[in-house]
Amino acid sequence: xxxxPVACFALxxxxxxxxxxxxxxxxxxxxxxxxxxxxxxxxxxxxxxxNPHTLLTFDVKDxxxxxxxxxxxxxxxxxxxxAGWTRNSVTPGDMITVYIYRAKVGAKVGxxxxxxxxxxxxxYGPFGRQQVDGQFVxxxxx
Length: 142
Description:
5-stranded mixed β-barrel, 2 helices, 16% helix, CATH 2.40.50, alpha+beta, two-stranded antiparallel ribbon
């Protein structure tokens, strides 16, 4: 009689444990993580400081001089803070260079790996943080 409740409990735990990956956050699945795109002379139009991801929107001119509107996903507020970002690091009107993994479907959206500011300083995103001796470090001046 005691074996049945224990077996039922073990079965419930096994089913729940097998289902945990279904609830995980897989934000990079929609992006081509094999090819980083560099967008130079990007004009920041908006910064949305929010969880789970801070968003940057910016305009970039294509080869023909036409303006393209882009959106880049960065990390959470806490991860950006730990990587050296502040709310004033990137503001609308700033001219930046954006390194980004673009969406697989070709949309002008992606995951920002790093941002190079006009003064040459670099801010790292969730998939591009600078590491020194295996530890993530705050951005440094070039």
